[in-house]
Amino acid sequence: MHYFSDNATPVCPAVMAAIQAADVADHGYDGDAWSARLDSAFSALFDAPVRAMWVASGTAANSIALACLCPPYGGIICHEEAHVVVDECGAPGFFTHGASLMTLPGDGAKLSPDSVAERLKAIRPDVHQVPASAISITNATEYGLSYTPDEVAALGDLARAHGLGLHMDGARFANAVAYHGFHPADVTWRAGVDILSFGCVKNGGMMGEALLFFGAQADARFAEAARWRKRSGHLFSKGRYLAAQLLAMVEGDLWLANARAANAAAQALAGAVPDRLMHPVQANELFIRLSAVEAAALRAQGFDFYDWGDGAARLVTNWSHDAAAVAPLAMALRSLPG
Amino acid sequence: MHYFSDNATPVCPAVMAAIQAADVADHGYDGDAWSARLDSAFSALFDAPVRAMWVASGTAANSIALACLCPPYGGIICHEEAHVVVDECGAPGFFTHGASLMTLPGDGAKLSPDSVAERLKAIRPDVHQVPASAISITNATEYGLSYTPDEVAALGDLARAHGLGLHMDGARFANAVAYHGFHPADVTWRAGVDILSFGCVKNGGMMGEALLFFGAQADARFAEAARWRKRSGHLFSKGRYLAAQLLAMVEGDLWLANARAANAAAQALAGAVPDRLMHPVQANELFIRLSAVEAAALRAQGFDFYDWGDGAARLVTNWSHDAAAVAPLAMALRSLPG
Amino acid sequence: MHYFSDNATPVCPAVMAAIQAADVADHGYDGDAWSARLDSAFSALFDAPVRAMWVASGTAANSIALACLCPPYGGIICHEEAHVVVDECGAPGFFTHGASLMTLPGDGAKLSPDSVAERLKAIRPDVHQVPASAISITNATEYGLSYTPDEVAALGDLARAHGLGLHMDGARFANAVAYHGFHPADVTWRAGVDILSFGCVKNGGMMGEALLFFGAQADARFAEAARWRKRSGHLFSKGRYLAAQLLAMVEGDLWLANARAANAAAQALAGAVPDRLMHPVQANELFIRLSAVEAAALRAQGFDFYDWGDGAARLVTNWSHDAAAVAPLAMALRSLPG
Amino acid sequence: MHYFSDNATPVCPAVMAAIQAADVADHGYDGDAWSARLDSAFSALFDAPVRAMWVASGTAANSIALACLCPPYGGIICHEEAHVVVDECGAPGFFTHGASLMTLPGDGAKLSPDSVAERLKAIRPDVHQVPASAISITNATEYGLSYTPDEVAALGDLARAHGLGLHMDGARFANAVAYHGFHPADVTWRAGVDILSFGCVKNGGMMGEALLFFGAQADARFAEAARWRKRSGHLFSKGRYLAAQLLAMVEGDLWLANARAANAAAQALAGAVPDRLMHPVQANELFIRLSAVEAAALRAQGFDFYDWGDGAARLVTNWSHDAAAVAPLAMALRSLPG
């Protein structure tokens, strides 16, 4: 049974059904009936006027967002282990035409306002140094932690005070919202987020994420993002198949239901190995201490997952899981001699 | 009934079935079983070792190909009405980091070896002028003409003689091959083509084209293209759903069957209006002289299509058509007073 | 005696003296006393508030100007034989991160408002096509023609009506102004020019041109240009040696005196071969019909110049010339049997 | 008396004389007699075949070098306080089209082979992570330390073993060589350096550095660099004035004589405040502990320099100094109460 990535899981049935329902003739690109509903669907979800755009992948969503917030000579403050830094082959550098990633350490891949403030203070305001233009955070983080609205708002305040844009990589946004139970608006635009990469693929979609623009500059940024989307080859000619997936997720509460299932499974596993946890479990990922011998023992029982350096492993649950489904792994973990 | 674009047509049933068959757990990105079969499937089709990569859109396929063939300070010789020039919002400039499109005129959007040779001769070999690095042609062309193997080979010879790469935009490659009946190898690698954007979406796919690398540099270019694909956000996390579409197209002869249907429909329409044709019909597009009054009359009967400047229109047939399906439009065209 | 380029000529004595006068200790980059005087010197010259920046080369000046006026996904309308198109190895593509050069034909390398208007009309306002963002003209043109204020204003009106920026490549701006005798303001900001590359090197300088920003957006564009200048390696650490050259040119009327000398020399030559002229002579360049035999005959007498394709030649006069200096060449031209 | 930067110092007389000697008519760009001598002059100096190119600024030299060694999707390992990281407004990102700077800590701004090796080991060889493509070091470093040949060779061995290019930013290369007394070849190509930015401006030049290419790939990289130089606006039309400066530096031993003078002055100052030194003094820069009160006291005596954060200052000596010239500052430093 695979726990190496939520990308490995099939598409959830409601999304597949939506794809098939969209299998009719309609206008190309984003001129179709499904794409036309995105703004209203996400505005309803976020309780505010939202401009919403389908984008094929999380990397494209993040990169286009950053290109809207940062000029080529600017910098993006982010965590040193952020996906945009370590897992996108430099995509932000490509889309921004060479902007700098200004990386910071921080527990659990979270950015702290103090470290951001200190970094900002160190930048000389002359033409020789790269000015900071944006802050990018991941929620849930790369280590499965979820920001509270207050934590985001502290960064949002800093961003506003320094004239920076604030981007949130929400590849697992649903899991973060489901964990805390806050309203999605509280942890985004109400806390100062300008652009959100709203993830769907890891949460049961086939392909396609939503790029959401909040606030007074939403229209202008959306228009610019539309150029980047086309120019980067991401304006698909049959966009209705993407839009339909997003609508299936958010016109009901599928996005939250799926995330809750994955989170519940993660909690069930966490409960089995409280002493092994390297980070709090606040989404659908667990990072646990696990020796090579233990890892081999689990794999021998059919459980698959990634090692995370020496003596550690990452387990990822997904929408198709629930506490029962992961019970065998929970038991196997409990039964480890260590 | 719509004739404005082959993008407007639904996915063909065999492709949809393939997508559903791929709806199982497997490794992410291109680590799945379907992606693993691409090289062999296309090698069989092209009767030669081919490196094949799924890419989400035609724009991405073309741009990544050009980035593999042309440095930022180089130039790409292409037709002034090529898709890469007029319909991709500058995507080649984005992916190549600013290479120049060296545009040439030519009947039916075809490049002639003479005009290419003349253009090459005009470039001074000093550091002030942009050197030509690649030639890009579209087959079938933007006006629905299809290159013969000899025509491609004449350009291929020029390319080789001047050390240029040769790219073919094959968004409607299937229609071109189906029209002439040549072996796909004859009009590509045997004629000097280095990289082919092999189109699927217009031919019945949902999303995803194949980028095919031929010849001695195929491996090196594939490796570089893999970086561009990731860096541009086109390495989808659930790539199996793309790979499955491509395999459904080419592991049988669906790609040709679909193209033949579209071509037959185009010929049926062409036969109805021989005197209105602005270009020979050698694929699935017709460009016809049509007054505004005539266009309105057709639309009143339920036929939809794009105007093509003043006094002209474009009609595009697709995989779901055949001669019978387009009979009503053929009759309506014949019945126009003019 | 060389007539192949005004680049080949030594620095004029007043500029060399200014360089030596600047050979004292002062702050680095543009923090020195000379750089601080640029704004006021050029504001006086242009009779309006001007933001002025030294830049090392004409290519850098042009490219930075275009990067301030055109986003990566935009287009720049210019003549197909403009320096930015044919002689800068794609520098505008580099500085703009891949913007498109939208080239137009036109007699004497001049852009006509009609052809620009027609080009603008042909662009669909959708996301697939590159929108025009700027117009760039060269004055004097690559064929030695000079725009009148009315001609520039017609382009300026078009630019304003379509929301485009207007750039003037003034590598030989002094020659153009000297020829017509208009006030420099009349042919620039009063006619709608936003940014001017004010040439010095061809006019007797050693290195360094001035980039001039006019109008309401001058400050914002200057600030952005300052980033591009630094980022492209053009913010020299001892900028005072560049600034001093520019001031020597424009704090008196050296720039005009030099240009008048070169122009007078060109007129003297033109008067010798009225029937050979391929273009009106309105600056310091002559393009004349000249057979290979005739060219050889002139070279045998010690005159050096560039061939300009078959049966033609380019002769360039410079600041160190006057009518007397070019009398030997004038006589040799008159004496040609043809 | 100024100690804030070696950029503030006038040009040394021999360089100014060389500029004036070059003030004759010659071919433009790098077609002149001075530019033609660069290869042989630097080959003699480095005791090996060297391809040498003038470039206007250190930022341009570094960036062009990195663009020759690193693709857009690659990474450059360098110190976190390197000039390319903190003082060039992201120029390497501009010239490389978005390559990543992979920064490492290290005493005195030196890179240690161990930290580089560890960084290399952490990069997964998949398409998601940016591969390392080059190492860039500064010699003398930003804190005035000079690498020994053995230290460079250890990095050169690592570079070769991993297929990386090795670049040396030698803005103060002369000071480094003068300090250790090694042959310039020992600390460059014999130790594995592929490209050297050979600094002249800080060492008494007006403008212009030399970009030097060593080894088997020198010709190919030079050819590519020539494109970048043109494309970035750095191919000046009167290049002879730059080439002449470089030749004046290295056809005799002016470059070393100037550096020795600056170094001697630095040692004289260091000897005055051994307990205040924050780094060993191995070139022409001193970083000393200095309270705000002490700094004010020195400035009141007419000594100018930059603060270096709280409680510290940077003093830079230059070619016009010697031990006698800095004696007043040495005495003032000794006389500080602290």
From TrEMBL, chains A, B, C, D:
<protein>
    <submittedName>
        <fullName>Threonine aldolase</fullName>
        <ecNumber>4.1.2.5</ecNumber>
    </submittedName>
</protein>
<dbReference type="InterPro" id="IPR001597">
    <property type="entry name" value="ArAA_b-elim_lyase/Thr_aldolase"/>
</dbReference>
<keyword id="KW-0663">Pyridoxal phosphate</keyword>
<dbReference type="InterPro" id="IPR015422">
    <property type="entry name" value="PyrdxlP-dep_Trfase_small"/>
</dbReference>
<dbReference type="GO" id="GO:0004793">
    <property type="term" value="F:threonine aldolase activity"/>
</dbReference>
<dbReference type="Pfam" id="PF01212">
    <property type="entry name" value="Beta_elim_lyase"/>
</dbReference>
<keyword id="KW-0456">Lyase</keyword>
<dbReference type="InterPro" id="IPR015421">
    <property type="entry name" value="PyrdxlP-dep_Trfase_major"/>
</dbReference>
<dbReference type="InterPro" id="IPR015424">
    <property type="entry name" value="PyrdxlP-dep_Trfase"/>
</dbReference>
<comment type="similarity">
    <text>Belongs to the threonine aldolase family.</text>
</comment>
<feature type="domain" description="Aromatic amino acid beta-eliminating lyase/threonine aldolase">
    <location>
        <begin position="5"/>
        <end position="288"/>
    </location>
</feature>
<dbReference type="GO" id="GO:0006520">
    <property type="term" value="P:amino acid metabolic process"/>
</dbReference>
<comment type="subunit">
    <text>Homotetramer.</text>
</comment>
